[in-house]
Amino acid sequence: MFFDDYRISRHPILNVHDSVRVFFTFNGRKLTGFRGEAVSSALFSNGIRIFGHHHADGGAQGIFCANGQCSQCTMVIDGVPRKSCIVPLEEGMVVESLEGLPELGNAPGPSVKKPLRHETQVLVLGGGPSGMAAAVELGKRGIRTIVVDDKNRLGGKLVLQTHKFFGSVEDCHAGTRGVHIAEMLQERVTSMESVEVWLDSVVLGVFSDGTVGVRRPDGYRIIRPVHLLVTTGAREKSLPFPGCTLPGVFGAGAFQTLVNRDLVKCSGRVFILGGGNVGLIGAYHAIQAGMTVVGLAEGMSECGGYKVHVDKIKRLGVNIYTSHTVLAAHGSEKLESVTVARVDREFRPVPGTEKSWNVDTLLVAVGLDPVNEFYEKAKEFGISSWIAGDSEEIAEASAAMFNGKIRGLRIARELGCDDVEIPDDLREKAEILKSPGGRVFPYEPPVDSREGVFPVLHCVQEIPCNPCMTVCPDELIKTTGHPIMGIPEYSEGCIGCERCVAVCPGLAVTLVDFRKSGNTPVVTLPFELGEWMLREGAEVTVTDREGGVLGRGVVKSWRRAPGFEKTLLVKLEVEGDIAAGVAGFRVRDPFDSEPLGNPLPVPLPDEAVVCRCERVTAGEIRKRVRSGIRDMNHLKAIIRVGFGACGGKTCSGLVERIFREEGIGPDEVTPLTGRPLFAETRLGWFAGKEGDDE
């Protein structure tokens, strides 16, 4: 395999641009990558997943979060241990794997100037959807604002999201793709004269004198804000099971970063753990990038994500295993297979229900934890602080944008902008947009009709979404319930413009047209997997809303939907008696997802690694807990759990879970003491070795 074999050369949504190639070395081997991409992505694009081996047990290491929150991808880069997922690739860079404890030699320290001090009215930590929305409101009113983000562009997780957004068209750009929303918001933020944006800048800590320390590429800065707004998003949750640290087992956010940001074809066969929106969307993104999703396991009896997301991947042939969990990931140096099993009501594996698949990737999408340590520390020190987005509460990005807007307005009012009003309906909308999804109603197919043209709305769950109602030129789609949360309903009079088909974020609207033939009508469906998947005159298997086979159809034609970039409208000729039920068609062989004939043997659960940094297992922790230890700092001192480079960010919640499993309540446990700096940095940044004069 060559460099280009691991790159996505065509994508149904994303534009594939030529980038500047540079050379670097990995363990003495000369490789090529794209300038400015993460070192970890450059390695993946060369087929390298194993980044080194841990000194404690020799276990192979790869990536997990790809967002700088854990430390699993650490390597020696130009003589310094650094997280490869957040280091941009440069020409001539020397990258070495961590094999045991590193011998660093005389690596030069950072050449930095005396720390500069800044004062601002508002400091926004994080340039994602909520941070940008707040900055826009502050900028409109001329409030001096600094936005700090550790990436090379604004957008946060929006830049990873190729799907169209739910929510309200008016309030949060529903019907528009996340990547395009990021571009729109970035343009608005950077056009504000009073707003200053610091990119590639890492917030290190919040201090008791009311200042915030930031490491910029050109040196260390100390900022004293009047108000601090924390919009730093969330980090991936982990789940301990044997093999959970194998290269090839990583978070869904890391997968989206590799695929949708860096256009790396990082997988061939993928299994997904977690049926929330993140896992469901990750499955869809994998299929868009040409990968095979062999299955998805969800521990609950129903997936927690939106029903339209569930149905969308079912129609594409993905098997969803509810009330199942992963027992083990198998492989010696990297992931080779995975075993899942059914769980009972107490979430205990049911013997005899095990299934195994050969896969090279397992996406762990079991939830997110707020990155709120900056806010908590600011409150402790009495700094005027605010919080929004996933840092406050995990929800959809549409809710994050709206809450960021509200926080920006509230801060503006605190700073004396008396003309700022926050209507009560804004707060109501904010709560609605946070909704994880409401009731699912029984599916009722439209009344049998064999004349004219009409849309079929395959949306049966109360979710915050109104694009189909907003886009209809004759306002024929409405709801009898809440204007955003209600189930959409169609009334007579459709002219066949197909806009509702093109705009629906859940790909849950089709158009049935009997006007030319009553026996073989044409059904128009949305399609986002690329024109190369289609062939005029091809016979395809058509499915209902949930992926059930209805019969056969013929691809007559397709076109790009005007005004809805990258969405294709595919016209299928089908039998009249099934037309109203057709919601999709198969694009792959379902046998791709068949499990192995015999499940693989599963190691004991105590072998699962809980602390990735120090390779501390669940069994080691349980042994100490059963001996009477109730202080997480005591555990840290004797078995090093939470001692590693991530500062306990990825394992502290898992240790708390073990305490609960052992019947020990949270009031009996002393939590882990946080470090004063929330991001690792070399002490030379604080030294001010050069330019000591002002």
Structure description:
- The chain is of the alpha/beta class and 694 residues long.
- The protein has four domains: 3-101 and 238-364, 2Fe-2S iron-sulphur cluster binding domain, sarcosine oxidase, alpha subunit, N-terminal domain (Ubiquitin-like (UB roll)), CATH 3.10.20.440; 116-234 and 370-433, FAD/NAD(P)-binding domain, CATH 3.50.50; 453-588, no CATH class; 616-694, no CATH class.
- Helices cover 20% and strands 24% of the residues.
- It contains 15 helices and 36 strands.
- The strands form nine sheets. Strands 9, 10, 11, 12, 13, 14 and 25 form a seven-stranded mixed sheet that branches. It has a seven-stranded antiparallel sheet with strand order 26-29-30-33-32-31-34.
- A hairpin with a 5-residue loop joins strand 12 and strand 13.
- Helix 2 packs parallel to helix 9, helix 5 packs parallel to helix 6 and helix 6 runs parallel beside helix 7.
- The longest helix is centred in the middle third of the chain and has 18 residues, at 397-414.
- The radius of gyration is 26 Å and the shape is globular.
- It starts with 20 loop residues before the first strand and ends in a 33-residue tail after the last helix.
- The model has no long low-confidence stretch (mean pLDDT 91).
Q: Quickly name the level 1 CATH class of the largest domain.
A: Alpha Beta
Total beta strand runs: 36
Low-confidence stretches: none
**By helix and strand content, what is the structural category?**
alpha/beta
The CATH superfamily title of the largest domain: 2Fe-2S iron-sulphur cluster binding domain, sarcosine oxidase, alpha subunit, N-terminal domain
Question: How large is the share of residues in beta strands?
Answer: 15-25%
Largest sheet: 7 strands, mixed
Distance between the termini: 54 Å
Counted up, domains total 4
Residues in helix, % = 10-25%
CATH architecture of the largest domain: Roll
